[in-house]
Design a protein that fits this description.
The chain is mainly alpha-helical. It has a single domain, classed as Non-ribosomal Peptide Synthetase Peptidyl Carrier Protein, Chain A. Helices cover 74% and strands 5% of the residues. The protein has a two-stranded antiparallel ribbon. The longest helix has 35 residues. 3% of the residues are buried.
Length: 129
């Protein structure tokens, strides 16, 4: 049991798990922002363009069951916005990564020390004899 707990601790404290936890929290917050954007800005404007249609109230009665297809349409639009935002973010990150890879490695020329210079002079003078 002690070994199991140690393995779990090692797993839980690895960088990837912590990064994933942070991504889930940020993703949840981003989801709320996107939902608000879709529900409060895009869909009302979309409804005005289509002649005052409010998608949230759109539904269809099938027998005794109400099918709220308007909410489904909003979910599709929300998904497209999230997918587009992720696409743009990944594209930007890839461009930054390419720029980093393309940067030439500027090598700093280091002047040799006085001892090295003296040793080279001795070497050169011995070779010329």
């Amino acid at each position: 049991m002690k070994k199991f707990i140690e393995e779990f601790k090692a797993f839980a404290l690895r960088g990837n798990v912590i990064d994933l936890a942070v991504a889930v929290v940020i993703g949840g917050a981003f989801g709320k922002i996107t939902t608000s954007l879709v529900n409060n800005i895009i869909m009302p404007l979309f409804g005005v363009v289509l002649g005052g249609v409010d998608f949230t109230g759109k539904s269809l009665m099938v027998g005794e069951v109400e099918v709220t297809y308007g909410v489904f349409i909003q979910s599709i639009i929300e998904f497209v916005i999230i997918a587009f935002a992720i696409f743009v973010a990944i594209k930007a990150m890839s461009a930054l990564q390419k720029k980093e890879e393309e940067k030439p490695a500027t090598e700093k020329v280091v002047e040799p020390s006085e001892e090295v210079k003296l040793l080279r002079e001795i070497r050169d003078s011995l070779q010329s004899k």
